[in-house]
Design brief:
The structure is a single chain. This protein has about 1300 residues and is of the alpha/beta class. The chain has seven domains: about 210 residues, 3-Layer(aba) Sandwich (Rossmann fold); about 70 residues; about 200 residues, Rossmann fold (3-Layer(aba) Sandwich); about 100 residues, PAS domain (Beta-Lactamase, 2-Layer Sandwich), CATH 3.30.450; about 90 residues, 2-Layer Sandwich (Beta-Lactamase); about 140 residues, Beta-Lactamase; about 150 residues, Heat Shock Protein 90. The protein is about 45% helix and about 20% strand. Helix 6 links the parallel strand 8 and strand 9.
Length: about 1300
């Protein structure tokens, strides 16, 4: 099966197909599928196809492999298009019709149709589905499928692939289809574009073709007109408002091509017209959504990919569980569930046990609610399940109706839910994510976010399976390639994997952003404020002193443009700390000033600091301005300002009078430096202690924070996963609740409609539930729920109800009782244990089935059985040749027994040759003597009257019935008051007699009694008819026997005469021949040739007479069984040659001889030679001169065959089976003129059969005959 699947289920460039630009010319190909009743539909279809449609048609009709297909001839009669039956690889052409041959299937490859012989797979995958799949792969949007009358679900699978690739699908209206299963199953896919009468479909397809490409929506928004922009916004607005789906993350080209297709299907002229149509036709919104969300998949799609999963991926997951038996899988975009069930089957098989032991949990999600509903149901048609092997079908599915349902143990491992992985939280801790053939519809940014989402959901080294047109190599930092060919990846372990927040794109971004004037004005005002802030910042940077902002750790957070001149970057590891970056000359004073500012929590200045920049000595004052306002966002930051001091230089001269001021200045400087040194030492020691304590605290806090962060992250992930699982479980629970509600409604309706009295008791024998009919037996009211059954009275004549209920709980066995009620009704009371689904016993169920009608039916059945037994006995007696009285006696006895002896029954017949009554059965001899000989006339009593009129005659009361006036004394004598008489007719003939019933009281017959009496009369008619027929047959047989004796005597006399005459004639004929030959010789010697020729003719007639005498003798011997065979080893070829040479001298025919290599045979050479001579003589006699006669011998398996073939007049078919009979001659215009007795072929046939061979003829009138006979190599011993 897999080999054939490769031929038509290969991968294809879906991006190219969905873009609507397949690598094809303008050819559109229409695939038509049909089966039962399809020929008439096809003829109607092609009768309405125009002469030049500009497309090609391929017809896939289910044909019997046993008979030659005439489909092409039938279709050619109704269409001018050329109809061709495909027998080899054929390039498809426009305006052609191609037909599948019987026992073959077709596949499309590029522009060619391939033909292959059906194999075992086609028993489950219909040829129409094979062709539709390959047609979709080859032609994409230019592929159209049509499904007509047929049985089963053929075509539905292929229709899905056509729609997936952008093609169109049309279906015959099921109401007009001769067999509507194929159309109905196609419609059930919800993917059909239109449902039409078959005569309208060709015009619809032509309209679709003409409109292909007529409406093209530019992908680039700048190339779209304003009205198209507005219409497109309306389309997506309708779609989002009515369906809740946002397609902003989908590829724009794909969306537009799908919209174009819907415009063409609806035969509209523009996008604007379609937007209006969408607004007024809500059903079109659903159809557009279906086109955008084509949920198409199948079991084990991409066989090789699933083989890789089975052989490497699934075993790897099972082996790397690390003691965890819980395996979690997510099927994102599961469509109708086939892939989810396929993976469940793989894990079950690999585990070598049930899935429950493994605790496999599969989350299967999709945004298509209809597809999810199908997946939850788990029921698939035979065609849907065609990709599943027979072994898996048997193991994982139950056959149900015309399809298969997934087994419960597999279904319960999968949670199906509606879920959008672009915006809904993902599942987590997954071993495998499968998202195949979904990403190709999404744009690049959405694909990147999905890759991040799946990475977050997967465990490290978890597997990601994508479609054959998808890849995760763009996210190589997140995934490693596991198998490039089948697009299987593994999640990489990275430092942190956060769930990416969804980035919803507004709907208008699909077209162009729309900004209101108010929003635009607000944005302008904000932009103006931002510009003034930037201007102010630039002015401060240019004219204010250089400054920088640092934090409590002295790290620089921001600095002005000119502050860098006071910093100097040293070698080593780069740093942002001010004390490491500031110039060396300022470092000591700056450190002290920063410390004092922090300690004092006030501003500090360090004045008169000197440093050299670019060879120039500068004086700088450093101002520290800390911020300690809790409500300020800058709390804890410090502003450091570098103010450059400018020394005043001029003509003023400073005169120092002595060295004392210098010494004092140096001493002050020294004191200041010592103070700074002490402060620095104190600051250093204090900071060292603080840093040590802070370091320890920070280390502890860091550990706590890391642990808390990890716990929070884990909790967050688990919470998201649990929330998602709870949401999914809630959906499943809602489905279960709905199912339970439906089941409850069904149960209630079942209880109400079953009309069976049922009472449910708990283990304490209290009433838990009862059905309405139970009130007819038990005196129950609604408030009796919970009351002991013993407190409730009933109408049954049975006291053991509670004891039986106790016995059921004790023995767990069903108890049945037949009980009666006080109103005379009968019931079958059944006690059963109440079992839960977990097989726990929670009480007793009592059912009471009303058997009253059943009992009445049993009485009727017993009556019928009694009647049938009596009838059988009567018929058996008649078959055994019993006298008529004995044959009718069982019927009389049956009637009397069924009426408990209160009736007497009798049968009368008409006396032979007289219109007189004659009693034959059922009454006493005394009564018979009084009745026999009565006239059959209108004045007769009821018995004679019924026989006379042929109609039933009922005398309710003999004393009041005037027809019994003359017979009342007899009736009173035997105490009869009522008499019913029924005519007994011969089957298909006249009235033979009467069946009469006598009652001792006046009585009016009931309908049932009339029916039974009629049956008795009918049975009697059969018996009497048989009796009459037997008598007539016996007389005929006696006459026949006498005739046969006379005929045998005459035949014996004839045979004796022939035998004697033949022997008596033989001697004089021999003498005549001898004398004639002597006279002939003498006349020739004397030169009298004319008279010699006449004598030669006389010899010929004498020879013919001799032959006839011999034939008569042989026929006589055969009749007497005295024909003896003398067997000798004989060369049959030599015998044939001799007989041919003897006869051909006097013939004017051409003889052809074909001699085969034959062994010696044990035969009677004289008799076989007689057969050969007879066949050759007939060939010469019944064929014109100068024609050919063939004689041929040849060996066969167990015998040899001799053939004689001529070119003569031939033998009509109606005579061929009789020509081997004795004295049979053909009487036709051509053959009746030839002399003969009809004995030659008869004797030849008897001779051949005496050799255990056979003789045959094959002939056609006017074309010659072929006679052949066979002789066995070895004769069996008889």
């Amino acid at each position: 099966m897999c080999t054939i699947m490769k031929e038509f289920d290969t991968s294809y460039d879906k991006d190219n197909i969905l873009a609507g630009r397949p690598d094809r010319d303008d050819l559109l190909v229409v695939g038509i599928g049909a089966s039962a009743g399809g020929i008439r539909a096809l003829q109607s279809f092609f009768a309405h196809v125009p002469d030049n449609p500009g497309m090609a048609y391929v017809v896939i009709l289910h044909l019997s492999p046993l008979y030659e297909s005439k489909l092409s001839e039938l279709l050619q009669q109704v269409t001018p298009l050329k109809v061709t039956m495909i027998t080899e690889k054929t390039r498809i052409q426009m305006n052609h019709v191609y037909v599948v041959p019987q026992d073959q299937h077709l596949m499309m490859s590029d522009n060619h149709i391939l033909v292959s012989k059906n194999a075992g797979m086609e028993e489950r995958i219909a040829p129409v589905d094979i062709f539709f799949r390959t047609l979709a792969n080859s032609f994409g949007p230019r592929a159209v499928c049509v499904i007509l009358s047929g049985t089963g679900a053929n075509g539905s699978m292929g229709l899905r692939r056509i729609k997936e690739c952008g093609g169109a699908a049309f279906v015959q209206n099921p109401r007009e289809a001769e067999y509507n299963e194929m159309p109905r199953n196609a419609i059930a896919t919800a993917l059909v574009d239109d449902i039409l009468p078959v005569s309208e479909i060709p015009e619809k397809i032509l309209s679709y073709k003409l409109r292909l490409g007529s409406v093209e929506i530019p992908v680039d928004s700048e190339k779209r007109a304003e009205d198209e922009q507005h219409a497109l916004r309306e389309v997506f607005s309708h779609l989002r408002l009515r369906t809740g789906h946002d397609f902003s993350n989908y590829k724009r080209a794909t969306l537009l091509r799908r919209i174009e297709r819907r415009i063409n299907i609806r035969n509209l002229n523009s996008l604007k017209a379609y937007a209006a149509y969408l607004q007024h036709n809500p059903d079109e919104v659903t159809a557009l959504l279906k086109d955008l969300l084509i949920s198409v998949t199948n079991f084990f799609r991409d066989k090789k990919a699933f083989e890789m999963l089975e052989q490497e991926v699934v075993p790897s997951i099972l082996q790397n569980r690390q003691g965890d038996n819980h395996i979690r899988i997510w099927i994102a975009g599961c469509a109708t569930g086939e892939e989810a069930y396929s993976l469940a089957m793989l894990f079950s098989e690999q585990a070598m046990g049930s899935i429950d032991d493994l605790r496999v949990q599969i989350f299967a999600t999709d945004i298509d609610e209809a597809a999810i509903a199908v997946a939850r149901e788990g029921y698939y048609s035979i065609n849907d399940a065609a990709d599943v092997s027979p072994e898996r079908l048997m193991r994982f599915f139950n056959r149900e109706g015309d399809g298969y349902r997934i087994k419960r143990e597999v279904r319960e491992t999968i949670l199906f839910a509606s879920h959008n992985f672009l915006k809904d939280p993902p599942f987590s801790h997954l071993d495998l994510v499968s998202c195949r053939n979904v990403l190709i519809y999404l744009n690049q940014s959405a694909q990147e976010r999905v890759m991040e989402t799946f990475h977050f959901a997967l465990k490290p080294a978890g597997f990601l399976v994508l479609g054959l047109s998808e890849s995760a190599e763009s996210a190589s930092d997140l995934y490693a390639v596991f198998n490039r060919e089948f697009h299987i990846f593994q999640s990489r372990r990275i430092a942190q994997s956060n769930y990416p927040l969804p980035e919803p794109m507004p709907l208008y971004k699909l077209t162009e952003p729309i900004i209101s004037p108010t929003i635009a004005a607000q944005e302008n005002r904000v932009r103006e404020r931002v510009m003034m802030n930037d201007l102010h910042q630039r002015l401060l940077e240019e004219y204010a002193p250089p400054s920088m902002v640092i934090n409590e750790e002295y790290d620089i957070l921001h600095l002005s443009e000119r502050a860098g001149r006071y910093l100097q970057i040293a070698g080593g590891e780069p740093s942002q700390n001010l004390l490491k970056l500031v110039r060396q000359e300022l470092r000591l004073e700056l450190r002290s000033a920063l410390y004092q500012a922090v300690q004092r929590q006030s501003a500090v200045e360090a004045r008169g600091l000197k440093l050299t920049i670019d060879g120039q000595l500068e004086n700088v004052n450093v101002h520290i301005r800390p911020v300690f306002r809790r409500e300020d966002v800058a709390n804890g930051l410090m502003l450091v300002i570098f103010e450059q001091r400018v020394e005043e230089t001029g003509d003023l001269q400073v005169i120092q009078s002595s060295d004392e001021p210098v010494a004092r200045q140096l001493e002050e400087e020294l004191i200041r430096l010592k103070a700074q040194l002490r402060a620095s030492i104190e600051q250093h020691e204090f900071q060292q202690e603080e840093l040590k304590a802070s370091n320890e605290e920070l280390q502890a806090m860091n550990e706590e924070l890391r642990s808390a962060a990890e716990e929070l992250e884990t909790s967050k992930e688990e919470l998201q996963s649990i929330n998602e699982e709870l949401r999914t479980l809630n959906q499943e629970l809602k489905v279960k609740v709905d199912e339970t509600t439906i089941a409850g409604n069904n149960l209630q309706n079942l209880i109400n409609s079953a009309e069976i009295a049922t009472i449910f008791l708990d283990r304490s024998f209290r009433v838990a539930l009862f059905t309405p009919p139970a009130r007819n037996v038990f005196n129950l009211i609604a408030n009796d729920i919970g009351r002991p059954l013993s407190d409730i009275t009933n109408k049954l004549n049975y006291e053991g109800i509670l004891s039986d209920a106790e016995a059921v709980l004790e023995k767990l066995q069903t108890i049945e009782r037949e009980v009666t009620a006080i109103d005379g009704r009968s019931y079958l009371m059944r006690f059963l244990p109440y079992r839960t689904e977990e097989d726990r016993i929670n009480g007793v169920v009592i059912t009471l089935i009303d058997m009253t009608q059943h009992k009445l039916a049993e009485i009727v059945l017993r009556e019928n059985e009694t009647w049938m037994n009596g009838q059988k006995e009567a018929f058996q007696a008649a078959m055994n040749g019993q006298p008529l009285e004995n044959s009718l006696a069982p019927l009389v006895r049956t009637v009397v027994d069924q009426n408990d002896g209160e009736v007497r029954a009798a049968f009368y017949i008409c006396s032979t040759g007289q219109d007189k009554l004659h009693l034959v059965a059922g009454m006493s001899e005394e009564y018979a003597r009084e009745i026999n000989g009565s006239d059959i006339s209108p004045e007769s009593m009821t018995c004679g009257l019924a026989m006379h009129t042929g109609e039933p005659v009922i005398a309710h009361d003999i004393e009041e019935d005037p027809r019994w006036v003359n017979w009342r004394p007899i009736a009173r004598k035997y105490n009869y008051r009522s008499c019913w008489s029924f005519p007994v007719r011969m089957v298909g003939g006249p009235v033979l007699g009467t069946f009469a019933m006598y009652f001792t009281n006046p009585r009016i017959p009931q309908v049932r009694e009339l029916e039974l009496s009629g049956l008795v009369a009918h049975a009697a008619s059969i018996i009497i008819s048989r009796h009459v027929e037997s008598m007539e047959r016996a007389q005929a047989e006696e006459a026949l026997r006498l005739s046969e004796q006379r005929l045998t005597s005459l035949l014996r006399i004839r045979e004796d005469f022939i035998s004697v005459a033949s022997h008596e004639l033989k001697t004089p004929i021999t003498s005549m021949k001898a004398y004639a030959e002597i006279v002939e010789e003498r006349m020739i010697e004397r030169g009298n040739y004319e008279d010699g020729e006449l004598l030669g003719r006389l010899n010929g007639q004498i020879d013919r007479l001799t032959t006839l005498i011999n034939l008569l003798l042989d026929a006589t011997r055969l009749s007497e069984g005295q024909l003896k065979l003398t067997l000798n080893e004989t060369d049959i070829n030599k015998l044939v040659t001799e007989k041919l040479n003897d006869i051909k001298q006097a013939s004017h025919h051409r003889f052809e001889v074909e001699i085969g290599e034959l062994p010696m045979l044990s035969i009677d050479a004289e008799r076989i030679g007689q057969v050969i001579t007879n066949l050759l003589s007939n060939a010469i006699k019944y064929s014109p001169a100068d024609t050919s006669i063939l004689i041929k011998t040849l060996p066969e398996k167990d015998f040899i065959r001799v053939i004689v073939k001529d070119e003569g007049y031939g033998i009509p078919k109606e005579h061929q089976h009789k020509i081997f009979e004795k004295f049979y001659r053909i009487t036709t215009d051509n053959l009746d003129t030839f002399p003969g007795m009809g004995l030659g072929l008869y004797i030849s046939a008897q001779i051949i059969r005496g050799h255990q061979g056979s003789i045959e003829v094959d002939s056609q009138a006017g074309k010659g005959s072929t006679f052949s006979f066979t002789l066995p190599y070895k004769r069996s011993q008889v």
